Q: What sequence folds into this?
């Protein structure tokens, strides 16, 4: 068995990717943010304060004949960007891309932080990280993918995120036609709940890869490519107008710049992010100053290969073999 779901950029800056998920009986369809950087499936619901839920599609367990309250269970999560949410837990049927898990922990939000209240295009997150990262107490719950894995043709999923186009999350199979190059595989470290890996080197503008390894995580829920300052500086030293903008909290440059590509080695192959993907968006509508898709990870303490990097590749999240595969697109 397999599953295949389309995913779409939320806005002109590809800030996040939205994937529809069916929950309950009859199906309640919610737009969720698939997040390989976390391990909770949580939703805006009939239990979310009305003022917070305004504008969001919500899940009502009372309207689902297959919903069951998980007695005594609660959850609470804080993300890398300091956003947060918490609540109680139901189990229900959850279908993604035509594949159903009959009893999935669906975490209902009784509290959500401002960032989520304001982000009305999503109704929650579907975590695709390792189960160790799940926040449900007293007993951690499995992710949708973890519950599905043993019934899928192969215990893996792929992410094919695209700039301003429809992409896909495929479960249980690899559609190699989505890629141009071979898949390079490297061990994944799931001990922290993330999909951690090490790139073997990097280069700017098509030069030969150096041998400076970069350890980080593959995170579909992070917009940017966040790397160490020495890498960020090595890149933007090639961009004449690049400067750090305090108000923007990042490097900006003239939108007219012809940005160099950024490449990294992984699993014996090279992934090249075209400069065009690193010109993320004007700092405000109509501005000729643009915000960089590559920014510093210094304040976070972990390198994050977010959507800017993922858009350049077909990425295989292979749970069965605890490895990550990257193929140039
Ligand atoms: N893994 C990521 C996660 O998906 C988002 S949670 C989120 C917050 C507000 C709006 C939408 C999503 C947050 O940013 C980086 C890291 O934490």
A:
């Amino acid at each position: 068995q397999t599953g295949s779901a389309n995913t779409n950029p939320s806005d002109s800056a590809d800030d996040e990717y939205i994937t529809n998920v069916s929950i309950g009986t009859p199906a309640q369809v919610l737009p969720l943010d698939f997040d390989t950087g976390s391990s909770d499936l949580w939703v805006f619901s009939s239990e979310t304060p009305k003022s917070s839920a305004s504008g969001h599609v919500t899940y009502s367990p009372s309207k689902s004949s297959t919903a069951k309250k998980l007695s005594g269970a609660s959850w609470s999560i804080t993300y890398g960007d300091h956003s947060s949410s918490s609540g109680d837990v139901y189990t229900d049927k959850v279908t993604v891309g035509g594949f159903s898990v009959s009893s999935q922990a669906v975490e209902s939000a009784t509290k959500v932080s401002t960032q989520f209240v304001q982000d009305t295009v999503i109704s929650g997150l579907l975590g695709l990280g390792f189960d160790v990262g799940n926040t449900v107490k007293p007993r951690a719950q499995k992710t949708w993918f973890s519950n599905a894995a043993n019934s899928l043709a192969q215990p893996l999923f792929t992410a094919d995120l695209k700039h301003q186009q429809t992409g896909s999350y495929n479960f249980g199979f690899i559609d190699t036609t989505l890629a141009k190059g071979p898949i390079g595989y490297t061990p994944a470290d799931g001990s922290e709940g993330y999909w951690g890996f090490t790139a073997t080197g990097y280069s700017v503008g098509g030069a030969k890869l150096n041998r400076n390894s970069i350890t980080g995580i593959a995170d579909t829920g992070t917009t940017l490519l966040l790397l160490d300052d020495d890498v960020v500086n090595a890149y933007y030293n090639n961009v004449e107008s690049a400067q750090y903008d305090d108000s923007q909290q990042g490097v900006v440059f003239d939108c007219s710049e012809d940005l160099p590509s950024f490449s990294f080695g992984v699993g014996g192959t090279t992934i090249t992010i075209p400069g065009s993907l690193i010109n993320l968006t004007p700092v405000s509508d109509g501005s000729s100053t643009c915000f960089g898709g590559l920014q510093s990870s210094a304040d976070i303490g972990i390198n994050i290969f977010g959507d800017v990097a993922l858009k350049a590749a077909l990425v295989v999240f292979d749970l069965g073999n605890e490895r990550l595969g990257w193929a140039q697109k």
About this structure: Residues 168 and 262 are 24 Å apart (CA to CA). The pocket of D5V is lined by residues 16, 33, 35, 37-38, 79-81, 83, 115-116, 119, 125, 219, 221-222 (CB under 6 Å). The mean pLDDT is 98. Residues 229-236 form the longest helix (8 residues).
